Amino acid sequence: MRPPARGTARLLYGAGLAAALTLPAAVAPAHAAPHPRTPAVVPAADGAKGQELPGMPTVLDSRQGEVSCTPASKATAEKQDWSRQRLDLDRLHRHTTGRGTTVALISTGVDPGAAGLGGRVTASGDAADDCVGLGTFLAGIVAGDGGGSPRLAGAAPAAKILGLRGTDRTGVPQPGLVTAAVRAATKAEADVIAVAVALPRRDAALTRAVADARKAGAVVLAAATPETPARGSSDEIPARTYWPAGEPGVLSVADMLPAGSRPDRALPTGDVDLAAPGAGVVSGGPRGKGHYLGGGVAVATAYAAGAAAAVRAAHPDASGEEAARRLTTTAYPADIPQLDAYAAVTTVRAGSGAPAAGPAPAAEPVAVRDTSGTDRATGRAVLFVLLGSAGVFSLLWAGFALSRARSRGWRPAGAGTAGKP
């Protein structure tokens, strides 16, 4: 009867070996499955509480008659905000600082003597009187050098700013002023034209001005919507197209939160080309050397404009359309593509040569992948392997013990050895 016992043992060993070889393969799909390419989610650099800085308004209250301009901030930022980390500006500046480019910024005006802008601002007349402060704040996001805090520099800290007024003194957009500003920017041969306001109705004169600007080779960007209303609910406002963001060839820009989503009360609109940081962003103002916190669609537009200046400086032979295409094709994929300034500058496009300057480029945008789903699957697979392995070894040990017991004729171990010398 021993041969059948040996056959049983061999069968048990064979089954155990097969199981041991098969179980690790069950783990492979969890590791081999490709990670989804998701945008990085970067928390605010200053923690949950945030930095104690005054807010930068987008419009002043004129109901009281006499308008009081935004006062100087007495506070200074101590840390880099999340937006600059999200756009990887420290690394971007090793490739380009936007030197040699001019960004026309159409907002509430820009103070030519503002701190952190290093005398690189050209503004005259009403455009040099920034009562609201928003235009100067945006200029710092586009081209500020950070003053004594280089990590608070803008996207293109060596670019020049052409400050233009597209609003009245309180910050309310005016179609005629926006049109005149676009034409002035085109005449000045600005490389990038950023319209940080949005108009509810299309204007024929503005349409022609934008078309002429694009024909002249400028990258034209515009706020996708007006700023979120301070009162009431945006849910009651139907989705619509705003201008000049809706014009052909204009890059429409929306604001996003650190998690990559749009603010809950953001105004609805149609197609948006890019989303950029637009909450809790640090920059300076027209008075004093202090900092403010700002947000909204205008802030996101300023970041996109700074990235466009960086692209044009790094790729001077690229046309305006090619530069704009770089911003959109290298963006993080999402419901609204999310601006990746570093990738827009460094990615080598098919059929192109090496970048104009800097070390070897990254072929893909750097992304922090969300592996939580894969990690959970891996954890379950590992647990399955451990339990399965324990069962296999138990099975092998049982087979070994059964074989030894049969070979002794079922006598206890050591039995029959007494009396032997």
From TrEMBL:
PROSITE patterns per record: SUBTILASE (PS51892)
SUPFAM superfamilies assigned to the protein according to its UniProt record, in alphabetical order: Subtilisin-like
TM stretches of this protein: 381-402
Protein name, entry field: S8 family serine peptidase
Keyword vocabulary terms for this entry: Hydrolase, Membrane, Protease, Serine protease, Signal, Transmembrane, Transmembrane helix
Residue span, Peptidase S8/S53 domain: 98-337
Signal peptide: 1-32
Organism: Streptomyces cavourensis
Family recorded in the similarity comment: Belongs to the peptidase S8 family.
